[in-house]
């Protein structure tokens, strides 16, 4: 049947909880945001409302950016992976410009349309699009807010059961910047998962997860740095294997 495709159904709101999550998704999935090429939201296909439950249907994607980093699973080249990461930076920069912080910005929350696997065979001249998912703990600030006001008092997950890398500022019991937290989370995950053997790329990863939030690259500058590297570096030079990740538990 024409027009049939696999979807994922996800409960977004139940018993009144999750309205902030829904508001952010609807904002990003509505004009003019959904028309922007640098907006990497996974689009909403349709909405199901049953009593106090709201369910959203989104396109079903199988692979994520964490999968793409595994040379033992896929034949992605360093170039394949870096062009996915530059999209991750672009999508994050778009969120941050719109005063939305994700707060769980790890590689498995970036979905990938398909795996290029160009070390084995180039099956397409195009590159897969990368989408950001899982906004359940995201925060949004008003346009007229001051930078000093864009802070969070408490991390949404208890740290003693949080099975992720924990940024230094979360252990101080003080207000923190969720935008700088996003960059630390993404940078730490990249540092542990993506081994390119390229010093300039390693420097970008480390710049994202500096211990002090004020010393970290923001999303715009990370995007600019990686884009400039890709523009000046010959494709043939990047057509090489990824090294095994530092964190073997990925």
From TrEMBL:
InterPro entries: Kinase-like_dom_sf (IPR011009), Prot_kinase_dom (IPR000719). It comes from the Eukaryota. SMART domains: S_TKc. SUPFAM superfamilies: Protein kinase-like (PK-like). It holds the Pfam family Pkinase. One of its GO terms (molecular function) is ATP binding. Residues 1-250 form the Protein kinase domain. This is Protein kinase domain-containing protein.
């Amino acid at each position: 049947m024409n027009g049939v495709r696999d979807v994922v159904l996800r409960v977004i709101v139940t018993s009144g909880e999750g309205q902030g999550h829904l508001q952010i998704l609807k904002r990003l999935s509505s004009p003019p945001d959904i028309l922007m090429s640098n907006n990497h939201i996974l689009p909403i296909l349709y909405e199901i409302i049953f009593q106090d439950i709201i369910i959203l249907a989104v396109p079903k994607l199988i692979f994520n950016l964490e999968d793409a980093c595994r040379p033992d699973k896929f034949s992605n080249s360093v170039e394949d992976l870096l062009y996915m990461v530059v999209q991750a930076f672009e999508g994050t920069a778009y969120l941050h410009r719109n005063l939305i912080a994700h707060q769980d910005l790890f590689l498995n929350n970036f979905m990938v349309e398909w795996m290029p696997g160009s070390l084995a065979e180039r099956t397409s001249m195009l590159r897969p699009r990368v989408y950001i998912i899982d906004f359940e703990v995201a925060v949004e600030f008003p346009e007229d807010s001051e930078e000093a006001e864009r802070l969070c008092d408490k991390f949404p997950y208890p740290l003693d059961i949080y099975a992720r890398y924990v940024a230094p500022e979360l252990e101080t019991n003080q207000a923190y910047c969720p935008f700088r937290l996003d960059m630390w989370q993404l940078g730490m995950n990249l540092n542990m998962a993506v081994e390119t053997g390229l010093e300039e790329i390693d420097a970008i990863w480390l710049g994202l997860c500096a211990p002090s939030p004020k010393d970290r690259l923001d999303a715009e500058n990370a995007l600019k740095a990686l884009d400039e590297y890709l523009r000046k570096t010959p494709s043939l030079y990047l057509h090489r294997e990824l090294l095994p990740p530092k964190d073997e538990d990925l």
